[in-house]
Amino acid sequence: MRTLCSSTLIGEALVILFAALVAMRLSDVPHGSLWAVSGVAMVLCVLLCGMLGRRGGVALGWALQLGLVASGVVVPAMYGLGAVFAGLWWCSVHYGRKIDAIKAARAQALTPAG
What distance in Å separates the CA atoms of residue 101 and residue 98, rounded to the nearest whole number? Predict the structure, then answer.
């Protein structure tokens, strides 16, 4: 699950960077506000990658996704991107846990009883 969620977070950070570059050209949002919101979101994505193995890491990921949706107040495009990111986060967590459970069951089946 950590690998899948980390991949999603790094992808999010890159998309946020590219979205900020586009928004800078197409929107009338002040550049300082745009880069402040985008920069904080990118840094949080990267930091959260290291916290996924710890208690509460997934919950912090959900908080980040909600924060990204809420950042649509400053950068309106983030309403849509935030919803997409939240969907990707859900898929990463949901299917990552399923894959981990399958791997654990396989490992247990291969372990000799004794």
Answer: 5
